[in-house]
Amino acid sequence: MALIEDSLYRKIKKQVGKAIGDFNLIEEGDRIAIGVSGGKDSYTLLHILESLRRRAPVKYELVAVNVDAGYPGYRTSVIEEHLREHGFTHRMETTNCYQIIEEKRRPGSSYCSFCARLRRGVLYSLAEELGCNKIALGHHLDDFIETLLLNQFYVGTLAAMSPRLKADNGKHTVIRPLVYVEEQDIIAFTRQNRFPVVCCACPVCGVVDQKRKRMKKLVRELSQENPQLRRSMIGAIANVHPRHLMDPRLGEF
Ligand SMILES: Nc1ncnc2c1ncn2[C@@H]1O[C@H](COP(=O)(O)OP(=O)(O)OP(=O)(O)O)[C@@H](O)[C@H]1O
């Protein structure tokens, strides 16, 4: 089934194109592994990057990569069928992450962050094996600004995410082309195109972290008074004034 190419599609495509240009996310000859979880964000990322690729002046390749952490009930066959149906080059990887999490996770520590760390390791290895120099993830504008707030409120650091980051192993570059796309548009786009969303089936699947949930609520409420709030916050991350901060590492006092 072809994508519905309406104004929402054009809006998201334009925002992704702008992010690619602003942060030099895609270059000639790139081979990009796209992490596809079966969630709304990564399906949107995959389809938009593919639409852009077809008409792009630079040549790049996409490989959809799914990591099955091994939770019973994770319906990877639904994801694979979708990838096949749309003709995406893909790789489905089964792992024993679930078992490792059960054995190694410290009681009380976050399930999701441990799982994400293991998954990232698998994604890096797969990217290497598949000859991909970049890894694209489906984090969107709301993820960026919620992380900014979470770090300020609960961690005591001024940090969000980067749309383009050299991976810890120094070999790959992680890119986040949905940085300018709002979550509500991704939800609408996913519904409109009937992407077959599946959940990861982990023990905390679908339970949004309470702190993140509060940040979402705060942003939603403030946005009702100021519809530009999200844009202002994402703009702030790209408009830093070190002289008006107080980190001694940024300059002498
Ligand atoms: N099982 C997986 N296999 C491959 N990539 C994954 C997997 N899980 C997550 N990712 C990648 O990491 C990104 C961030 O993961 P996270 O768990 O925060 O999911 P999310 O924000 O709910 O996104 P999505 O809607 O795509 O699941 C995803 O958008 C996707 O690109």
TrEMBL record:
Entry keyword set: 4Fe-4S, ATP-binding, Cytoplasm, Iron, Iron-sulfur, Magnesium, Metal-binding, Nucleotide-binding, RNA-binding, Transferase, tRNA processing, tRNA-binding
Domain of life: Bacteria
InterPro entries hit by this protein: Rossmann-like_a/b/a_fold, TilS/TtcA_N, tRNA_Cyd_32_2_STrfase, tRNA_thiolation_TtcA_Ctu1
UniProt xrefs under SUPFAM superfamilies: Adenine nucleotide alpha hydrolases-like
Pfam families assigned: ATP_bind_3
Domain tRNA(Ile)-lysidine/2-thiocytidine synthase N-terminal: 32-195
Presence of keyword Repressor: no
CDD domains linked to this entry: TtcA-like
HAMAP family, per database record: TtcA
PANTHER family: AMINOTRAN_5 DOMAIN-CONTAINING PROTEIN, SULFURTRANSFERASE-RELATED
Protein name (Swiss-Prot/TrEMBL): tRNA 2-thiocytidine biosynthesis protein TtcA
